[in-house]
Write a structure and sequence with these properties.
The chain has about 650 residues and is an alpha+beta fold. About 30% of the residues lie in helices and about 10% in strands. α1 packs antiparallel against α15 and α10 packs across α11. It is globular. The N terminus is likely disordered. The strands form seven sheets. Strands 2, 4, 5, 8, 9 and 10 form a six-stranded mixed sheet that branches. The chain has a four-stranded antiparallel sheet with strand order 1-3-7-6, with no helix packed on it. A hairpin with a 5-residue loop joins β4 and β5.
């Protein structure tokens, strides 16, 4: 799998070309013709969605499609494709979306250029989009650059950050240069230098456990398609002969190394005691910062991540002498710590401090065991040593010890749940990709993965999937945009392991459908990435819940601010479980429309929180899932 590059080719049909021109350039744009706002690659299946909004926040749109569509070329208005619309589900209204939808399929159009989709009878058009092989390259570039803006312990300079710059967060006294240990709300001394790493999300904290998926997704994205990632994205390390994604990953990995104690154990997190100390950029947060106790689950996540990274950085010995060996040595020390602490530690699943303004990043015995299996799988892949194989074989198949919410991929007849037991899924995928892995573990996992892929394929475009981006309705939850990536990742793993090969083209089309949803082909016609107009985005979100780009910031808060948020941040997404009933929308909306472009926190009039973080907060794990899913669709970088 190392160094493998995927070339994804869609299915083509005979073209249906129209003649003559149109006055599309003078016709109004309607958001009810939903497209991928960046566009499509030439060989891709291209489907625009026409929607009559029946329920939800846009139900007053007053638009019903005429039954036919045209694709017109921007510039001369020439009709290059035309056909009848295809109704979804016999013209039914989707309760999940609140819409009645029709499909405009123009996969036959492959000529690079800029186009619009047109309703010729209602005289409205879509936003413009491109057809080009490199249509997603600038999108990937900005999505990766988000991690630079999330850097902790360093200045984000105007040279590299443009309008989004600051002098460096948590560089003051009693902050990350010398962050003491805290337990039970008390500082215990033992200060450590813990500069670096990425802020986890919209808050300014740093966690080890949440890197389990973040680092896997980004490292695997590079392994799948290394040529997609350039060395020219204008971060401080650009032009050093190393893809900037790996430079950015090294920034995080170097911080992770600092979180390891001399005995191999890894401290759980770094945070302050207040979410609201200083408004604005990270340098405004002057409160003391602390690190918490070592935990076995953080240690296991670090061990797995270092072993994975060691394989990748083995190819970069010249720019980073000895780095691969350093990573692998840290992984071995962490494993030794786990061997000396065979049960979850601390035993209560916490890191012994609930006074920090940070999520607890805790665990339970099953979660701790799953992370250990993941560490062993990555160590086996990195070293081939039998002891790691023995651990995987012993515990991965112990359903009671490693299930989550009763779900387990090796339970007979089971599926691979995209949102549960994700560390175990990663472990089994890495193990199945390793020479010499035991068939008794690999084959049941492959069977579960193959069944899950086929379940997704069968549901695609079905009664619960009007927008061609299927996942369970209940997965329109907190972080639903990450859920799209998790479902896509199941299909990516299926392809990577060579399962159900006759359906790989369909799987790739479904993965692309998740991207199209995030890029604007959704019931609100929103691109869920910030400020992507330079890449072709037309209706991009403008506000995210983030301390730096806070509500009311004259520089960074939405359309009325001077700059808005930086390009490329993926917001959390629609959340049908949002419970603040006086914020409607998103409260009370159909699941796919449970979104609002705002970043409100404390409402002084109501003396209550608006809780916009449940909808619009970004996070490094959301971002990593998106980068992974997008990367195979990007051709080689210059």
């Amino acid at each position: 799998m190392n160094g493998q590059r995927w070339v994804w080719i869609g299915v083509s049909l005979v073209a249906v070309l129209g003649a003559g021109g149109s006055d599309a350039a003078e016709e109004p744009v309607t958001p009810q013709i939903m497209i991928d706002q960046f566009g499509w690659q030439p060989e891709a299946r291209k489907v625009a969605i026409f929607a009559e909004a029946v329920k939800g926040q846009n139900a007053n749109a007053g638009y019903r499609p005429s039954g036919r569509f045209e694709v017109v070329r921007v510039g001369d208005g020439k009709v290059v494709a035309q056909d009848v619309l295809t109704p979804w589900n016999g013209g039914a209204v989707s309760e999940t979306a609140g819409d009645r939808v029709w499909y405009a399929d123009f996969r036959m159009l492959k000529t690079p250029g800029e186009y619009r989709v047109r309703d010729p009878e209602n005289h409205v058009v879509s936003s413009p989009f491109r057809i080009a092989d490199d249509v997603y390259r600038p999108v990937l570039r900005d999505a990766v650059r988000v991690f630079y803006y999330q850097r902790s312990g360093t200045a984000i300079t105007p040279e590299h950050g443009g309008n989004w710059n600051h002098t460096g967060g948590h560089l003051g006294p009693n902050q990350d240069r010398d962050a003491p240990l805290t337990q039970g709300g008390k500082s215990l001394g033992d200060a450590r230098e813990l500069l670096g790493g990425w802020f986890d999300a919209g808050d300014l904290n740093k966690y080890v456990p949440y890197l389990e998926t973040t680092l896997f997704d980004l490292l695997w994205a590079y392994e799948l398609n290394p040529t997609a990632f350039g060395d020219d994205t204008n971060i401080p390390e650009s032009r050093n002969g190393v893809p900037d994604l790996l430079d950015e990953l090294k920034w995080e990995l170097d911080w992770l190394l600092k979180m390891q104690d001399a005995d191999g154990g890894v401290f759980n997190r770094v945070a302050g005691r207040s979410f609201n100390n200083g408004d604005g950029p990270p340098n405004a947060d002057t409160q003391p910062r602390f690190h918490t106790a070592k935990t076995t689950w953080a240690t296991a996540v670090a061990a797995a991540s270092w072993a994975h990274a060691a394989r990748v950085y083995a190819n970069f010995e010249k720019p980073f002498p000895g780095y691969c060996e350093r990573l692998l040595a840290a992984s071995r020390r962490a494993w030794t710590y786990l061997e000396t602490h065979p049960q979850m530690s601390p035993a209560d699943g916490t890191d012994s401090d609930t006074t920090l303004a940070a999520t607890p990043a805790g665990s339970n015995p099953n979660g701790d065991r799953r992370s250990r299996v993941y560490a062993a799988a990555q160590m086996f892949r990195a070293t081939g040593e039998p002891s790691f194989q023995t651990f995987v074989d012993r515990w991965a198949a112990d359903i009671e010890a490693t299930a989550e919410s009763g779900l387990h991929p090796l339970r007979p007849g089971s599926l691979v749940d995209p949102l549960n037991h994700v560390g175990l899924t990663q472990a089994l995928f890495v193990y199945a990709s390793s020479p010499g892995a035991s068939p008794s573990v690999v084959k049941p996992f492959q069977a579960a993965l193959g069944r899950t892929a086929e379940m997704i394929r069968a549901a695609h475009g079905g009664p619960d999937d009007p927008y061609l981006a299927y996942h369970y309705e209940g997965h329109y939850c907190w972080g639903s945009n990450q859920s799209k990536g998790r479902w896509g990742r199941v299909l990516m793993m299926t392809i990577a392991l060579g399962l159900n090969q006759e359906h790989h083209a369909a799987y790739r089309d479904i993965i692309a459908g998740y991207l199209h949803f995030l890029h604007g082909r959704n019931p609100l016609s929103l691109c869920y990435l910030t400020a992507m107009e330079q890449a072709g985005g037309d209706r991009c979100i403008t506000e995210i819940y983030h301390q730096w780009f806070r509500d009311g910031s004259p520089l960074y808060d939405g359309r009325s601010s001077r700059f808005g948020a930086p390009p490329g941040y993926l917001a959390g997404g629609p959340n049908m479980y949002f419970g603040v009933d006086w914020i409607a929308p998103p409260f009370g909306e159909p699941a796919m429309k449970a979104y609002r472009d705002w970043n409100g926190a404390w409402n002084a009039q109501r003396k209550a929180n608006e809780a916009s973080w449940e909808i619009t907060e970004p996070a490094i794990y959301y971002q990593a899932a998106y980068v992974l899913m997008l990367s195979p669709f990007v051709p080689p970088s210059a």
